[in-house]
Amino acid sequence: MSELNPVNPVAMTVFIAFFVLVTVIGFFAARWKRGDLTQLHEWGLGGRQFGTVISWFLVGGDFYTAYTVIAVPALVYSVGAYGFFALPYTIIVYPFVFAVMPRLWKVAKAKDHITAADYVQGEYGGKWFPAAVALTGIVATMPYIALQLVGMQVVIKGLGVSGEMPLIVAFVILALYTYASGLRAPAMIAFVKDIMIYIVVIAAVWLIPSKLGGYAHVFDAADTFFKAKGGATGIILKPAQFTAYASLALGSALAAFMYPHTMTAVLSSSSVGTVRKNAIFLPAYTLLLGLIALLGYMAIAAGVHVKSASDVVPALFGTLFPSWFVGFAAAAIAISALVPAAIMSIGAANLFTRNLWRPLVSPDITPAAEASTAKIVSLVVKFGALLFIVFLPTQYAIDLQLLGGVWILQIFPAIVFSLYTRRLNTQGLFLGWLVGIVIGTGMAVSQGLKPVFALHFGDAVYPVYIGLIALVANVVVSFGVSVLSPRRVVAVV
After folding, report:
1. Which conformational region is residue 174 in: left (phi greater than 0), alpha (psi within -120 to 50 degrees), or beta?
2. I want to staple 316 with a disulfide (CB 3.0 to 4.6 A). Which of 60, 181, 297, 299 is the partner?
3. Membrane-spanning regions, if any (predicted)?
4. What is the CATH number of the domain that holds 97?
5. Which residues, at least 6 apart from 489, have a Cβ–Cβ distance to it below 8 Å?
6. How many helices (H) and strands (E) does the chain have?
7. Is residue 172 part of a domain?
8. Over 70: is that where the pLDDT of 394 sits?
């Protein structure tokens, strides 16, 4: 928006009321499903006792974030159909979760693994390759947390409040109840967050088109807008975009559950059946995501004009809804930042403590000290992300998050392939990981940190997701080196 809106007292009151509600829930969570929070599996995995309903809200809460609600409509508003790649991505991912994650859960439960790097260490032994897996997860997660702050920052600005202080206060509160309650806090808050988001989106897709002359007018307006804009935009994909669209969807789907926050949510489930049931029911969020994406077209039809595409959703709601609903919607989106940010910081803290600090610095650490270290690291991670947003341009966080997707995809062979084959060994996987990281980073840097790279075959050009290209190189090297070197020995745990 061209300038900051005046503060709306009604919207701000509703926003603050819901924020206070989730703060109370966050601190109360330590008493829910009681456990010994001086143990890392209790603090960092909720004691592995979350059933189907809780896990459904928790996974949905950390997978569909505040940045999703802000960024997906913003991308659709800017480029049209290309912005819908998130839909096939979330359709592809759940069959993958159904097939793969129960196997991983079984091994993790049997051997008391808390992180993906724990699993790698249990399968291959040693400490340096698991440390590389852990470091990849932490580095890929940091800008992801920062982007949750971007989402919160956008909605607070939409309410007419400038400056960094509201963001700082919100994250101090988040840090305190995450420290106190661990994974139980975002699990409880996810109930409130998801119900609020469903209410906001259903109300928006029902009422906004009725105010704009129906969906036919919304799509006609978007089509006219993109035709006038020209270039690669449009409400239908251009043939030149097919490979980029498909490879982004596939690569993002393969990467999605390699992140520490989604892995943590899965491993906190109470049983294999819970993991499978969630894979069956989580596509309900895909429907929600499709509806959220349509807000980009609705903003075009409503004549919303913003300086930054990220402001589209707050501007649309501010234009068409009463003040109380604007406050409610802003609170829903802001809380959608708190849930994943909490889980991400816990997942990163688990990795640091279990797979970097314990093996490399303090091998004799006690279980209580391990949990205490993780709590402190979770604070450091959150405030690191906060400093990122306060002192560096937002674009850095966006660019690094795109790189993070390329990086996190490179741990895929070590985790997923190891569940199905014994042919891989540490040398092959470690070298494959390194090749994937180097190629992926080099390609991304050469493209100005854009996510796709144009592959040339004769006169034909195929833009492909860089993470997928790097993963192919990783897989070739991992299997090639493993075939030529001694087969791995499974470590006794």
Report:
1. alpha
2. 299
3. 12-32, 53-76, 82-101, 128-147, 159-180, 187-208, 242-259, 280-304, 324-352, 373-394, 400-421, 428-449, 461-484
4. 1.20.1730.10
5. 125
6. 22, 2
7. yes
8. no
